[in-house]
């Protein structure tokens, strides 16, 4: 098969670019041990409500202006539903679901997670401004999805 000279040049350039790209990705992934975050921690979704710490969802103070929020997202509620903290507090969220996939978004912040049954998802956020921050489920989870909400009250 006869290829035009310029066509052959572009095929060589494209092939070389592909080899360079795959080499860079390979070096990044294996030689420098740079991987995407993958701290996959799981819990049995059938027994999530009996296992600590998800058997008692709560907001607990772990230091000065530092809190840990252990939460369970289930049809059609977040537990705990309302949390009150002082301005400037950092909250470490830890959430899972026993039933279906839910979303966890705190409006006005960059906290946005997908809550998958049996997977423990984590996020940390510092609330520097007072107000009520709405927690919404942004993944359709059933017929009562529109009423699934909670809030963080920052005083």
- Major sheet description: 6 strands, mixed
Tell me the Rg in angstroms: 23 Å
CATH homologous superfamily placement of the largest domain: Cupredoxins -  blue copper proteins
Can you identify the CATH class of the largest domain? Mainly Beta
Structure classification: alpha+beta
Proportion in β-strands:
35-45%
Number of helices: 1
Assigned CATH architecture of the largest domain: Sandwich
What's the structural domain tally?
2
Report the strand count.
11
In whole angstroms, the N-to-C terminal distance is: 75 Å
Rough outline: elongated
- Poorly predicted runs are none
Mean pLDDT, as a whole number? 89
Helix and strand pattern = HEEEEEEEEEEE
**Helicity, as a percent range:** 10-25%
* CATH topology heading of the largest domain: Immunoglobulin-like
Protein name: Cytochrome aa3 subunit 2
Pfam families: COX2 (PF00116)
GO molecular function: copper ion binding; cytochrome-c oxidase activity
Catalytic activity: 4 Fe(II)-[cytochrome c] + O2 + 8 H(+)(in) = 4 Fe(III)-[cytochrome c] + 2 H2O + 4 H(+)(out)
